[in-house]
UniProtKB/TrEMBL annotation:
Residues 367-397 are annotated as: Disordered. Residues 22-161 form the PatA-like N-terminal domain. It comes from the Bacteria. Pfam families: DUF4388. This is DUF4388 domain-containing protein. Residues 380-397 have a biased composition (Low complexity).
Amino acid sequence: MDRFKGNLASYRLQLLMPAFFEAPAVDGMLRVERGAVRRHFFFQRGYLVGESSSEPMEHLGQVLVRLRILDAAGAAAAFDAAEAAGVPFGTLLVERGLVSKARLMEAMEHKAREALFDCYGWESGEVEFRPGLPPLGRAVELQLGLKELHRDALVRLREWKVFWDLFPGPSTTFGVYREFAVERVSAAEEQLLQLAEKGATLSELLAASPEGPLHGARWVLRLYRRGALTPRKPRGPKVGEATALADLLALARGLVEAGRYEEAVAVVGQALERAPVPEAHALYREAEVRLTVALADEVLSLDGRLYFEPLPRPLPPSLTADDLYLYAKLRGSRSVREVLRNAAMGELAAYRALRRLMDADIARVMPDNTTPKRRSRTDPYGVPVYVPSPSGRGLSR
């Protein structure tokens, strides 16, 4: 592919991206710029091997803190040390043993994925492709398949379309009905409810999420489905939708009565995408609670028994961006149950992601009579790294 420059109003990323991974795959740098935000993506043989961004919230240090891989003070001190030494931030973290290479790769991959996915939603700005790669020096390289990234980005676009079709716009304000949010309110949900009670707009609710607008949108959508948040100017059903809405509610009631709660949640979700109907909110709450109870024993049995293999390179194409994000969160937490309960994607979606990680043999369950493995650092290719034990002897597998 020759050098190319255009406007995102005419050349959206979902149209351009297949050209970078369909045979023959091309090497080069893609620049995407809108306003003060400039991002560079480096492609090689159908993979994303590097990414940079001018957005302060996308700094690697910020991502490491959000994923609980480093604390804020440690990240700031390490960044200053890297600047003084003139070496890449990530390289210094690994060389000084502050972060394992495997965990650094998780954070870098998450950072790169989210930056690319965000650019898919841009409808204005500049896009430019330059053949050839600049020397990456001592930087830690990524290896993310462009085909899988494109797949996940299109899923995100559809998710956002459903969200914005549902609410009137960024200036939407909400009525708060706490009687429908008494049970199972996470810290993130409580923050959103408090902001909504003070009259915050939808754009302000999305901006309040420390993990980004997508996670904020997912929390808002879950509160809406429960009936705890209702837009002050709700969109009613369009002409011809009322009959279909009644059919969906009848189907959902039947699924709940049959104990098919997972299917009921999906059907009620479709109904609530059409209009905020009180019966649909009630059915969603009932199906969600019953489904959670049904999953509780299995999820509780995993606490303290899960251990995680390093991610293979390249990553399995069956895993989605949400699966990999959940993997990073689980690796930084002691409680599987708490991570799943507090996942913005929803407990059911998080449970499905965990099952996919287990099917890929990345998340494994130890037998009841097995002592948990103490592995704080592992090379991303599975080579054991010396880990000190309390007795002073090293443990490796």
